[in-house]
Design goal:
It is a single chain. Helix 5 packs across helix 6. Mean pLDDT is about 85; it is low at about 25-30 and about 50-55. The relative contact order is 0.12. By secondary structure, the protein is α+β, with helices and mostly antiparallel strands. The protein has helices spanning about 10-20, 35-45, 70-85, 85-100, 115-135, 185-205, 220-225, 245-255; strands spanning about 145-150, 155-165, 170-175, 230, 245. It folds into 2 domains: about 10-100, no CATH class; about 115-265, no CATH class. The chain contains 8 helices and 5 strands.
């Protein structure tokens, strides 16, 4: 089944989450655009932000099979997002499709103790857990995760699409810079979540950041909300680039049970 389509069972479980949000204005658009159809339009935009012609699918480029006016879907999505209903709906849908979120298992240590090796093991475990919890397992499983010194102190991490190549196979990379380490797991994992938003948008062909100015667009802010982050008010220079953990992000990290000792390592001076 297409991931944006809601089954009758899913809708019966979740309909009250969205139907309880009042509209400030009467519904407009095509006749018969019920709440379920509008919810499916919002899901379509999340799962299929890129069309077959590799053009960004906005609210006004919805395919005919959706049968909902894009302006109507946009208005309702904004209302659901502001009220918190959309996140409750999304989490409920992920639970119905993939089971109730449970605390992640820790990986046993093998071989000699290496700070970088332990950090990467924890980051890879967190990647899989966040992918399932926030994105329903839709992100690619073969992504390179590294720890790097970083050229600037104010750059805690970055995502680079299709950086690694082996013949025709290409892999993206997420780098966590050492400036994000040394103070426990939350800081580093918040950076990982930030980069997962970029990876997700790149995966569906949705440009969310200007490569030259690093201005983070509204597309980034919308997905960051799903990924357990809060964006600071729009910055004139960098847009929605400044993020921090939301409460649901902290709760998910607690369920991950990260090894705090691995993330206390930091790069310092000395000979």
């Amino acid at each position: 089944m297409k991931p944006w389509r809601l089954t009758d069972t899913e809708w019966e479980h979740l309909r009250e989450t969205l139907e309880g949000v009042r509209r400030e204005k009467p519904a407009r658009g095509r006749p018969g655009a019920g709440v379920k159809a509008i919810a499916q339009a919002c899901l379509y935009r999340f799962f299929h932000a890129r069309s077959d012609t590799y053009k960004t699918v906005g609210w006004l480029q919805m395919p005919g099979e959706i049968n909902v006016a894009g302006s109507t879907a946009n208005r309702r999505f904004l209302a659901w997002k502001e009220s918190g209903a959309w996140l409750r709906f999304w989490d409920g849908l992920m639970e119905l499709r993939h089971g109730k979120a449970r605390a992640a298992r820790r990986t046993k240590r093998r071989g000699p103790r290496s700070p970088v090796a332990e950090i990467i093991v924890e980051l890879e475990r967190a990647y899989d857990f966040f992918n399932q919890r926030f994105f329903g397992g839709t992100l690619p499983h073969d992504v390179v995760i590294t720890v790097e010194r970083g050229s600037r102190r104010n750059c805690p991490g970055y995502f680079c699409s299709r950086l690694w190549r082996d013949g025709e196979k290409e892999l993206g990379q997420i780098a966590i810079c050492t400036s994000a380490l040394g103070s426990g797991a939350e800081r580093a994992l918040a950076v990982l979540l930030h980069e997962l938003v970029h990876l997700r948008n790149d995966h569906v062909g949705l440009p969310d950041c200007d490569a030259t100015t690093q201005y983070h667009k509204q597309h980034f802010q919308e997905v960051a909300l799903v990924a357990g982050l809060e964006c600071a008010p729009r910055d004139r220079t960098y847009g929605f680039a400044h993020t921090r953990l939301a409460e649901r992000g902290r709760e998910t990290i607690a369920m991950l049970r990260p090894r705090q000792d691995a993330f206390r390592w930091k790069v310092g001076g000395g000979n």
